[in-house]
Amino acid sequence: YKFTILERRDDNITCTKNNGKQNKKEEADHDESLPVVDFVKLVTAKYHEESSCLLWSHLEKHGYIILTVSSSSIIAKILNEMEETLESEFFPSAAQQANCAGLGNGHLYVSERGIPMYRLGYEHCDSIREVYRVHCGSPDSQPWPSSSSRQSWLRGLCACRYICDVALKLTLGYDPSTRFGSGVASWKGYGTDLNPRVPYFSMPEGALPDRKGDYSVHYAMHYFNASHPPPKFLTDDDDDTNTLLNVKSHVDPSLFVLEPFLAKVEGLQIRPTG
Fold this sequence. Notes:
This protein is an alpha/beta fold. The protein is 24% helix and 22% strand. The longest helix has 26 residues, at 147-172.
């Protein structure tokens, strides 16, 4: 399943007059047929059975949901900051790419099936994209560009993990929120059991204990075709129009795949079930 977070602009909330009184009325800012779920309703669904049923209904029908958040909310600000940090520090301009050489010396990631997959950290994959990967169960297993970029990434990671934990609780009845590095406190800035005054994402590098059994990977990909198509563009086997794509049709083999940003380049779509 894929979760895509959209920012709902606060100016979509308009005021209408009724008998001299001001009433707030939210205008529809999306296609009613889309599987849209509000973030607040998702995280409070355990108190509202209809929200939990709506999540199930969307996943069964579409295979994904679009999660909306208020642009003024703390989680929106965290994800916006992470996106800005990605662009400025993890994926610098071509003139600064030499600085990324040392960021690719991370540990070898081994999947839950014991299969070696790739090196954690930075990788220049090909003429199409570059990537930076972090193992959620051992987030300091690769170099970081800076301490501030590490903090921004980790806080965004915790926010994404919290959303997936909520979805796991609602759909499978499994509650991983009690694990170290999970729960609301991990991204809202509260202290931890190890240090009540220091949030999870602010703990010194190397001080975060590994999360045994957590094989999740938090990664970002930067595609180079924002203005000019690269020479190794792909055509989709399922598309007879020879449309050029970044990535061919595929299935991500995970319980949940969360995409916190909308793609800024064409060729990155989520296809519904069936």
